[in-house]
């Protein structure tokens, strides 16, 4: 698989969001083929992301990719994940154990990076940000799954980092991706935005929540909007998806038709929610709102869900 | 939350599939409220599904719901999940330990049921099939997650069955839902269907695959179609979602524009794949194909994805 498949696909909404650009060939059907990934590992063009627990490590000059020689000098390597091959060669992610303060001190050329900040400030090109997000999601999953949930014994990495196997009971475990719905309820010319206490000052965004067993994405949109803001919604329209590596979700974006406009927030979930006019929402997107209210930046799918409404 | 929210929502594609009807109020925000779920548990109208490992147990007369007195007589009860409240009272799921052949023998009024068969033959009304699917998905998750994946120690059920907590390291674990894309590639008047060796004789269906960290649903549709059948696809259009309790997935259905028609199957994934005309597909849906070829029954989202194409 070597994207791009089709120039038209690059225009789709799901391609506009942060962490969505992944142009490597994953070779997912060959990850267990004897010698296949090993040969790529030995390719002198092979490059490696480094992730400490859930945190990417970058060079002091902003470098995100390291060669095999550099990686070979790092202690506390726990897992390696084969991300795929691109025009410049194979890419891997290397996970370090969580308690490696000492290793970091011994490696003064590396610094912990904030993946959200990297996505916001654009200091990494999208073609690297996507694979780094994937590496962080898979390696973070390894870090939280070193024991078998079936029998409690230690499990071991398999399938080039895309599985863990339990030698004791034989169970296989695969990296987890949690589906999350994120939605904009619309009532006539107004949309519903809320803010959580942890948001940046003045920021409002779409409501969102984890999908549960036994519900469709559409039912989850209706349940979460009612629970968090007291608003019933009817028709639900799909917008786009986004891989979200915090820790490892699939954001599924929707627009939804509100059936009422009387808000009653769940104070455990939201600090505030209110209706915003199309005009006001445009000012927030463009950071020109007179009261300094803002929406999330363009790396977040919420930005695009809101903009699609605001621009009609 | 008490559905229906809106008569219009009942017409959406996601509402037409098996396991999608869930009209209980989940009270998801009150699962940890002291006394709340306990009061529902003590309600004389409370009813219980019983799940053995991954298998629902039904009465010999087909009954799926049992009262508290019956449940109280069962040994090997491991977990209880609060599913929600409906017009007839609260519903729960009870999980039995896996090795309870003896308990079953001691309880001659119960028989193991096949959840797929229940969905196909319609012997359970949709309003029960959806919650039973959810109970099976959550209780099956418990059965595979009795140990903490972070530290290997035994974990304990929490939040009325919607979480497991680790007393040793403090980690919280939530029921897993795995996103899966399922898609129909279309080339002009033809669509691409494949069959796996395990399928019923003559059955063809949509291609499908698990979504991985770092990809949008649309990219996953393109990757899986290329990997399994050698067909590149461009534009991808959302159709619907389906909760799928085998063991616990969210099926995300799409139509996709094929960019070529030369099929090259991955023989590890598929036994055969070919293009079918709209007319032939209609005959398969209606079980009138002269060679006896068929598509999956209406409880499967694949049926609806194919029918939407076939009927234009």
Can you offer a commentary on this structure?
2 copies of one chain form a homodimer. With 312 residues, chain A is an alpha+beta fold. Chain A has 8 helices and 14 strands. In chain A, strands 9, 10, 11, 12, 13 and 14 form a 6-stranded mixed beta sheet that branches. In chain A, a hairpin with a 4-residue loop joins strand 6 and strand 7. Chains A and B meet through helix 5, helix 6, strand 12 and strand 13 of A and helix 5, helix 6, strand 12 and strand 13 of B.
Can you give keywords for this protein?
24% helix; disordered N terminus; 6-stranded mixed beta sheet; 5-stranded mixed beta sheet; 312 residues; 28% strand; alpha+beta; homodimer
Structural class of chain A: alpha+beta
Sheet bearing the most strands of chain A, described?
Answer: 6 strands, mixed
- Tell me the number of helical segments of chain A per DSSP (H or I, 4 or more residues long): 8
| Most residues in contact, chain pair and counts | A-B, 78 and 78 residues
How many β-strand runs of chain A? 14
What is the CA-CA span between the terminal residues of chain A? 36 Å
Any idea what the shape of chain A is? globular
Write the H/E string of chain A, N to C: HEEHEEHEHHEEEEEEHEEEHH
What value does the average pLDDT of chain A take? 93
Hey, roughly how much beta strand do the residues of chain A contain? 25-35%
Low-confidence runs of at least 5 consecutive residues of chain A: 1-5
If you compute it from the alpha carbons, what radius of gyration of chain A comes out, rounded to the nearest whole angstrom? 21 Å
The portion of residues assigned to helices of chain A is: 10-25%
Oligomeric form of this entry? homodimer
């Amino acid at each position: 698989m070597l994207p791009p498949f089709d120039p038209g696909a690059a225009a789709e909404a799901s391609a506009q969001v942060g962490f969505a650009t992944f142009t490597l060939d994953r070779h997912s059907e060959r990850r267990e083929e004897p010698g296949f990934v090993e040969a790529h590992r030995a390719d002198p063009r092979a490059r490696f992301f480094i992730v400490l627990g859930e945190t990417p490590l970058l060079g002091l000059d902003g470098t995100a990719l390291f060669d095999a020689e550099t990686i070979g000098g790092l202690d506390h390597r726990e897992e390696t994940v084969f991300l795929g091959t691109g025009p410049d060669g194979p890419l891997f992610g290397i996970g370090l154990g969580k308690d490696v303060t000492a290793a970091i001190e011994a490696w003064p050329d590396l610094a912990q990076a904030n993946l959200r900040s990297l996505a916001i400030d654009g200091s990494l090109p999208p073609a690297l940000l996507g694979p780094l997000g994937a590496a962080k999601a898979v390696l973070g999953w390894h870090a939280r799954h070193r024991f078998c949930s079936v029998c409690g014994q230690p499990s071991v990495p398999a399938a080039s980092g895309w599985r863990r196997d339990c030698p004791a009971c034989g169970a296989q475990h695969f990296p987890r991706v949690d589906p999350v719905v994120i939605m904009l309820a619309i009532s006539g010319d107004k949309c519903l935005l809320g803010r959580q206490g942890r948001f940046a000052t003045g920021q409002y965004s779409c409501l969102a929540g984890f999908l549960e067993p036994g519900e469709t994405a559409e039912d989850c949109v209706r349940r979460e909007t009612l629970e968090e803001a007291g608003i019933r919604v009817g028709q639900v329209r799909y917008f786009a998806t986004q891989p979200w590596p915090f820790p490892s979700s699939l954001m599924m974006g929707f627009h939804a038709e509100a059936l009422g406009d009387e808000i009653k927030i769940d104070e455990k979930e939201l600090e505030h929610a209110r209706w915003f006019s199309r005009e006001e929402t445009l000012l927030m997107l463009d950071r020109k709102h007179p009261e300094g209210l803002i929406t999330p930046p363009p790396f977040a799918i919420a930005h695009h869900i809101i903009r699609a409404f605001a621009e009609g």
